[in-house]
Every structure is written in structure tokens, then in C-alpha cells.
Specification:
Distance between the termini: 8 Å
Order of helices and strands: HHHEEHEEHHHEEHEEHHHEEHHHH
Strand content: 15-25%
Largest sheet: 4 strands, antiparallel
Helix content: 40-55%
Number of helices: 15
Radius of gyration: 25 Å
Number of strands: 10
Length: 410
Amino acid sequence: MAIKLRKLSLEQRLKTLNIPPHIRSFIASNAQQRTLADRYVENAIGTYPLPLGMVEELIVDSTPYTFALATEEASVIAATNYGAKIAGSIYTQCDHALQVAQISLTHVTPQGEHRLLSQLAPIKDMLMARLASLHRRGGGLRDVSCARITKDIFVVYVTVDVCDAQGANIVNDAVEHCTPLVERQCGGTVLASICSNHNPQRLVHAQAHIPFSALPHSQTLTSKTLAEKIHLLSQWAHHDIYRATTHNKGIMNGVSALAIATGNDFRALEAAAYTYVSLNENKPLSRYHIQDEMLVSHITLPALCATKGGATSHPVAAWNLSLLASQCPKEFHAHHLNRIMAAVGLAQNLAALRALADEGIQKGHMRLHKKKNQESPSKDFSQKIQTQTKKAAKETAKTMKQNKQHKNTV
């Protein structure tokens, strides 16, 4: 009989797949890990731990914050800490948490389009009722608009203030609920209803004014020269898409690490960031210029981080969010987290450009990488683990292949 993994318990899956003990010790070493894995994904066999490290002090809008980042790259947390020291206080602005959802339709005639546009009130009423929980928190429906995308596709856009939530589930529920009414109003056929990760009215901005005296210097590079080189590196990224892509990737190193460590959807955040970049003629997310003996840095990012919903209830994410909240002088909301996120991106970027302008990115990165390798288990132990892992992977693949062949013969 063919084995269906989804019908097995986590322990049964581990046994069925021949997951060896040394791998189990990493992915499912205790009951809490196993319970969390089963809660979040289908066919769970355990968790994939990422290193968690601390940003010691990042000053955002005059408030110092200490918090955790989750990343496998050695230099990310080191760079964020270093950039935070150079930047000093980073000041921010954040838009409201406006989430856009779409209802796409086909077979909408011009008459049906006109009828829908003139009768949006019932649709708005239905959406407002469905989004009542957000309205009670000061959010809810903000706008309904329509556009013909092609000859055959007509789209209704629904904009919702999701407050502190990630928003996808509640907004998707609302637009799906009202699709029958939309169909009746316009006479068309709904193709699909779904929220978008592109939310151009949901941005966060951060900036830092860094006196030349606060910039590091060396025997070969004065602080003023460093500022000038960082400005030139910024110009290079502004005019060269090859450089801009890597420039932006460095920013997202820190941004995604914070999103993961707070239970946020880093994939949505990255998708939104790169769409924002493409609409901005593929320019870098940050820019630098010199003004009155100061290096001035700016960054703009989509503000999609949330403090409620999704995986923010994960014990590690909840702890990290509580840690941030305990340091905030006001009640902690999603816009505070997005401000911190932008500041992390700016600090990460500043440290990377400082390294590029001085000793080069590889020297410092490899120095840290070498140090971490020296602190890690011995080479013999690592090779033993790799050998065991390769053997175990072959056994798992063999089991799955046999199961697949059995299914095909049933």
C-alpha cells in the first residue's frame, strides 16, 4: 500500500523516510519543535534552525533598541551593529498599513463596467461589514476602484488599512466574500480574488545625518575621503543595474533577517521591495550625498512587517517582538517595527559601503568567516557529519522512489 505522508504523524514520517538520529537531533530534538513544525506546515518532519544573534543598540527616532536577527550569513549581524554605531540616531517616517486586494473579472461589457462604477456603495457596505474587526481598531476599508487591464480582464481594487496585522488572510476573506455581489453588479465572471504584495502607499523612509567626525578613518583613508567614496559608490549603484542589484541585496540581508526573527513574511517583503525597485527604474533602495560636512543617507522600503497574525505568535518571534515593545516609549505597533526594519537596512548598507570604500568587502568578510570556522567543530567531525548526511539522504531518496513506484503500479 502506498504511503501518504500527510496521513502520518511527524514521528511516523521520520521513521518512514529513514531520517537518521544525527539529523533528527537538529530538526526535531524536542516535543516543542515537533509541535511547532506540525502546526505550521504540511508533511512536517521538524524545523530548520537558523542562527539567532543580537543587534546590541540601534537608535531609531532617538530610542535605542536591542533585538535579534535570524540569518546564516556571518557578516550580517556584525555589519548591522557596526553600521548602527556609525549612523547614530536614524530618523524615520512610515505610511499607514494599506493593503491592496484585487478581484479580477472576465466578460465585463462597457455597460457592465458603467453599472458597477455607479453602484459601488453596496459593495463597500459588504466589505465594511466583513472588515468590522479592523474598523474597531481604527483600520478597515479605505477605497474601492476599478480598471480595465486588457480587453478581456477587468479588475476591482480594494484598499484596506490592516493596522498591525499582516492582512493577507482577512483581506482575502473579505474580497472573496463579496465576489458574488460584484459579479451581479457588472454581469461579468470572477476570474480570481487575491491580495497583492505590491502596496505602493505602504512605505517606510529612514535617514541619517552623519558628521565626517563620526566616520571611521584609517592610515590610508580620512573620514572626509571615506564620505566622498561612499557618495561615489551610491552614484555607481544609481547608474548601474549590476551594482544596484547587489547594493539592494545587501540591504535585504538585514531586512529579511529581522522579518524572519519576528515571524514576518520575508518573501512578500522581498517581492515588494524588488517591484518597488523596478518601478523606480531599477535604482538602489538607498542613496547618499554630502551636505555641510556630513554624509546624508536615505532609504525607502515597502512597510509590510506586522506585529499580529501569521507566524508572529511563534515563541521566538513573540519573544523578539516583546523585547522590542519593552524598549519602545509608546505602545508598540507595526509601524514601529517597520521603522526599525528600515533602520536595519540603512545600517547594514552603510557598513557594507564603508567596507567597500576602505579595505574591500572580502577582507573583512573572510576574516569573520575564518574566525567562525575556527570556533566551529573540528574538520574531522564536520566531514563525519557530511558523510552521514549524504548516506542518509540517499536512503531517504530510495524510500521515496520505492513509494512512488508502488503508487504507479496500484
